[in-house]
Amino acid sequence: MNRYKSGKIASILGILGNLFLLIIKGIVGMLTKSQAMIADSINSASDIISSILTFIGNKVASKPRDEDHHLGHGKAEYIYSMLISVLIILVAITVFKDSIVSLFDPSNYNFSIWYIIVCIVTILVKLGLFLYTNKVAKVHNNLLILANSKDHRNDMVVTFFTLLSGICMCYSISFVDSVVGIGISIFILITGIKIFIASYDVLMDKAMNENTKKEVMDIIKKYKEVKKIQHFNATPVGYLYQVSFTIFVDGNLSTFESHDIANKLEEEISALDDIYVTIIHVNPI
Asked: Which residue of 5, 7, 187, 213 shows the fewest CB atoms closer than 10 Å?
């Protein structure tokens, strides 16, 4: 299955799964008056929007290059990942604020067995979504799906503490509900900031990682005809890189011979998993 079809399926499953969880958590949260469960349901609402953004971003990023976008639309992944991170941060701030208010003005908690059932169902649904999206993200090196995957993982942790909160409330330990809400908000906030930074780095053309650069350099070193390298540059193109640099070869080589070296280098480097295209300029030395 190709990168974008896998991303499409992952986002659709996320929308359907989170819609189901939003409904059941919202109903139980209202019935039990649990701040932790209400915070959890708000998190599910943000997850729906997150999955929709994943769907749209994946679709835009899958478009091939055209006359207006010579390097394709790959960076859409990171633009939409950044939008998801901003949404996550806003949800975290909202949950934190509501939990602080609840801590000093606690509501009457009404225990229901459905509270426990909903928590268990949520953990199972999120575990399935996490395992699938995490696999897709790793196979295709997709930050957009990875952001969605981390969101599912976070939801498992959030719901576990929501479950813990409900158990504590059964024993009249009321403050735990608000404390869990605060903890959830901080956890969500940290995740949002991490995704924001990862997206920002790519959009600001952060240099490629050292492992990939070493792979490129190792290929160049195999060509003894290359005497010197200058102006090495790697620009992100979606999840890949456009690499460009200048090589210096013996000035006595014919134009055909020197450019044949460059062509072979371009082909070999472009075959690497993280490389979109390679552009080499040749100078005599």
From this structure: 5
Number of residues that make up the chain? 285
For residue 103, what are its two tokens? 């801590």
Cα angle value 129/135/139 (rounded, 5°): 145
- Which pair of structure tokens corresponds to residue 16? 């359907």
Alpha carbon 125 to its chain centroid, in Å, reads 19
d(CA 81, CA 61) in angstroms, rounded, equals 12
Residue 68: burial class (beta carbons within 10 Å; 0-12, 13-18, 19+): exposed
Measure the CA–CA gap between 32 and 126, rounded to whole angstroms. 22
pLDDT 10s digits, 7-17: 778 888 888 98
Number of neighbours of residue 70 by Cβ within 10 angstroms: 8
Beta-bridged to residue 225, according to DSSP, are none
Q: Report the C-alpha gap between 22 and 126 in whole angstroms.
A: 12
**pLDDT (tens digit, 9 = 90+) per residue, 185-221?**
887 788 788 888 878 877 776 767 788 888 999 999 9
- Token reading at 104: 């000093």
Residues 162-171 as b or e (16 or more Cβ within 10 Å = b): bbebbebbee
E strand segments, 19-58 = none
Entry pTM: 0.62
Residues sharing a CB contact under 8 Å with residue 123, sequence separation 6 or more, in sequence order: 156, 159, 160, 163
Rounded CA-CA distance 179/96 in Å is 10
State the alpha helices, DSSP H only, in 141-277: 143-170, 175-203, 210-221, 255-270
d(CA 275, CA 243): 7
Please name each of the domains of the chain with its CATH number: 3-203 (1.20.1510.10), 210-284 (3.30.70.1350)
Determine how β-strand 240-249 pairs with β-strand 228-237. antiparallel
